[in-house]
Specification:
Hemocyanin, N-terminal domain; Rossmann fold; 14 strands; globular
Length: 548
């Protein structure tokens, strides 16, 4: 933010109070109130930011549900952006579940019912041929990040149409709160191509196009126009594809990853956080990545994305690509993905190994004898007692990762995993679970949340102006997360760094990824002498500015 130019063209009075980037609410000084026409528009009392923060915490404590807290925080973001981020960063472990998963799932389901003020850009199929024009309606001219969704696969909730806008808004808030990416360089976007959700189409409060989703060439052409327009209007912008259906997500990434700076967090971010968790888990059972056998429940873009990054990690330990992939197996709704299965997608075929047909997950566990099971099915309770007990028979310390979001879609709970494995499971989930007391010991469940990856990656890309995003960068991020897990964390069963230190963790990861960006010649700026100081200097801090 250019403070000098703001001072020269400073809005006054109500215009100032209605600008969330500039509004200080009750924290304007006496001099600012006199100079900027605010006398009488705010109470006489002048708050410190700390006093404002105490008031926020008090008001939130009086909200009876997490959704009410989400709505309150959204309104705060619309009114006073600095105070919003100061609130989030004051206690990230507490606030992340309120502004993102799991609360954002319910918020998206009810998005049209709880909307107070539109945020971000909605690019409708109705505006074909005019996407550049619509993008230029955005007031910021140097956007560096966009999270974009078409709303077809929101978390584990399915097609929510434009209600999915809660996801880009929430993710970009975490770019700032968890890694210090300035909020004014971010842009949430929803592509409105219709919805096949009949409930939404019948809802009078639904805010999107009331038509079935477009498919085929028309959809592809619309995405091509969008990506091309983004490159022209915001040439330094990295595009994060988010919550697209599998049959669009994988081709989109393949089509654009070598053309523009882009990535898919559901595929690559999820993969990185899984590899980070596995790397830390192997410190508990003294294993090596190349010795593990992985069985995935869910054979879509998330499952195959994790399997590919695991394979890359195994290859760095000496295995060939075919040897590494042979240690990764997938199960979908029709059973084991094996070589005789017809109609496999291209991204499933590398993991379709020769094996007898198996129709259920338990049979696959008993036959393949995995050391780790990873759930990305979005179907709850499929890691049932029989599955967990089988894993505990096969392994002294089975790795159990039910990664599906939100909590209602988790393949099992932390308590179930610890109890059914007699306290021997190494556990991490996609949604947060409370500590579990079992066998005289308290286990602290790890949360395999992509928040350990994408904000840090974002800061590295922002600082270096990286021209491309590579799988090697995600593997680097995964290892940088895992190396921050202490022995004390591991002793409590925690295989990710504490979320209370997420900013510190993210900046460590960002520095390691930035180092790789420079080493691979992908940076758009010269390499600084002190990379850590260079990264820290880019960090947004939620502090009010003095305007007069």
């Amino acid at each position: 933010m250019d403070i000098q130019s703001l001072r020269e063209d400073m809005p006054h009075g109500m215009r100032l109070l209605r600008d969330p980037r500039l509004n200080k609410s009750t924290a304007f000084t006496e001099r600012e109130r006199e100079t900027l026409g605010l006398i009488g528009l705010v109470p006489e009392g002048i708050d410190t930011e700390e006093t404002q923060l105490r008031r926020i915490h008090l008001q939130l404590s009086r909200k009876s549900t997490d959704l009410e807290k989400y709505i309150y925080l959204s309104s705060l973001q619309d009114n006073d952006e600095t105070l919003y981020y100061k609130t989030l960063m004051s206690d990230p472990a507490h606030f992340m579940p309120l502004v993102y998963t799991p609360t954002v799932g319910e918020a998206c389901q009810k998005f049209g019912h709880i909307l107070r003020r539109p945020r971000g850009l909605y690019l409708s199929i109705k505006r074909r041929g005019r996407i550049k024009e619509v993008l230029r309606n955005w007031p910021e001219k140097d956007v560096r990040f966009t999270v974009v969704t078409d709303g077809e696969r929101i978390l584990g909730l399915g097609d929510l149409g434009v209600n999915g806008m809660g996801i880009p808004i929430g993710k970009l808030a975490l770019y700032t709160a968890c890694a210090g990416v300035p909020p004014y360089v971010t842009l949430p976007i929803t592509l409105d191509v219709g919805t096949n959700n009949e409930t939404l189409l019948a809802d009078p409060l639904y805010l999107g196009l009331r038509q079935p989703r477009i498919r085929g060439a028309e959809y592809d052409d619309f995405l091509e126009e969008f990506v091309t327009a983004m490159q022209e209007v915001f040439p330094r912008c990295c595009i994060q594809f988010e919550d697209f259906a599998n049959f669009h997500a994988v081709p989109l990434l393949a089509r654009y990853r070598e053309r523009v700076c882009c990535y898919n967090d559901d595929i690559q971010g999820t993969a990185a956080v899984a590899v980070a968790g596995i790397s830390a888990a192997l410190r508990i059972n003294n294993g090596k990545m190349k010795e593990q056998t992985f069985l995935f429940l869910g054979a879509g873009s998330a499952g195959t994305g994790i399997a590919e990054l695991i394979s890359l990690a195994m290859m760095e330990e000496g295995l060939s690509a075919s040897e590494a992939r042979a240690r990764c197996w997938l199960v979908d709704v029709d059973g084991l993905i094996e070589s005789s299965r017809p109609n496999l997608t291209d991204f499933q075929k590398p993991f379709a190994h020769r094996h007898a047909q198996l129709k259920d997950f338990l049979s696959a566990v008993e036959s393949i004898k995995p050391t780790a099971i990873i759930g990305v099915s979005t179907v709850p309770k499929l890691f049932n007692q029989a599955v967990i007990e089988a894993m505990a028979r096969i392994n002294a310390q089975p790795i159990i990762f039910p990664y599906s979001n939100p909590t209602s879609c988790s393949e099992c709970t932390a308590e179930e995993a610890y109890r059914w494995s007699e306290g021997r499971a190494i556990f991490a989930s996609g949604s947060p679970f409370a500590p579990v007391r079992f066998g005289g010991k308290t286990f602290v469940p790890g949360q395999g949340n992509n928040v350990y990856i994408f904000p840090a990656l974002g800061m590295a890309i922002y600082a270096t102006e990286a021209r491309r995003v590579t799988d090697e960068m995600f593997l680097c991020a995964a290892r940088s997360v895992a190396e921050q897990v202490t022995q004390e964390d591991l002793d409590a069963g925690l295989i990710y760094p504490p979320q209370s230190d997420i900013l510190k963790s993210s900046l460590h990861v960002a520095e390691k990824v930035a180092d790789l960006v420079f080493a691979r010649g992908l940076a758009g700026v010269p390499r600084p002498a002190d990379l850590g100081a260079f990264i820290r200097a880019k960090v947004y801090e939620p502090e009010y500015h003095d305007f007069v």
